């Protein structure tokens, strides 16, 4: 579900701005073979002044445009800086992926900063593809 009309969504914050804070953050750029979604899904532990979310990128990178999907019972697009056609085409797949992995993603968001690298790797391996 895209939530509000995509033209009314707030601009998605550039990753560079979110990473500029001094918080300790675990993160990963997940690829198409890992998620089943064409493009890159950025996952992280808690960061920024917002609730749990993932970012979708056509091309990964701190300065690249993206859209964010809330990790919730009903995931929705909550911010966007990509063309509306990209959001309409790809957000259903990202939303499906978030729905399938909601509990694991929330666990990572809230507790992943205490996990060891093998635990993070195991978590990523267990995520379901669409």
Topology overview:
Blueprint: H1 15-19, E1 27-30, H2 32-35, E2 40-44, E3 53-57, E4 67-70, E5 77-80, H3 84-111, H4 117-126
Antiparallel strand pairs: 1-2, 2-3, 3-4, 4-5
- Helix content range of the residues, please? 25-40%
The largest sheet, given as strand count, sense and whether it forms a barrel, is: 5 strands, antiparallel
Helix tally? 4
What overall form do the CA principal axes indicate? globular
Could you give the count of β-strands?
A: 5
Low-confidence segments, given as residue ranges, are none
Order of strands across the main sheet: 1-2-3-4-5
Mean pLDDT: 90
Structural class: alpha+beta
The first-to-last residue Cα distance is 16 Å
How big is the Rg?
14 Å
**Percent of residues in beta strands:** 15-25%
Could you spell the SSE succession in H and E letters? Answer: HEHEEEEHH
Please tell me about this protein's structure.
The protein has 130 residues and is an alpha+beta fold. It contains four helices and five strands; from the N terminus they run αβαββββαα. It has a five-stranded antiparallel sheet. A hairpin with an 8-residue loop joins β2 (40-44) and β3 (53-57). The mean pLDDT is 90.
Give a quick summary of the entry.
The protein has 130 residues and is of the alpha+beta class. The chain contains four helices and five strands.
């Amino acid at each position: 579900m895209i939530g509000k009309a995509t033209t009314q969504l707030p601009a998605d914050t550039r990753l560079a701005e979110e990473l500029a804070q001094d918080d300790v953050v675990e993160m990963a750029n997940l690829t198409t073979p890992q998620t089943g979604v064409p493009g890159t899904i950025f996952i992280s532990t808690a960061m920024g002044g917002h609730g749990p979310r993932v970012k979708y990128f056509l091309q990964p990178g701190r300065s690249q445009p993206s859209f964010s999907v809330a990790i919730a019972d009903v995931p929705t697009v909550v911010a966007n800086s990509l063309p509306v056609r990209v959001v309409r085409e790809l957000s259903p797949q990202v939303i499906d992926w978030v729905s399938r992995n909601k509990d694991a993603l929330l666990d990572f968001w809230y507790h992943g900063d205490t996990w060891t690298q093998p635990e993070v790797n195991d978590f990523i391996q267990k995520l379901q593809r669409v």
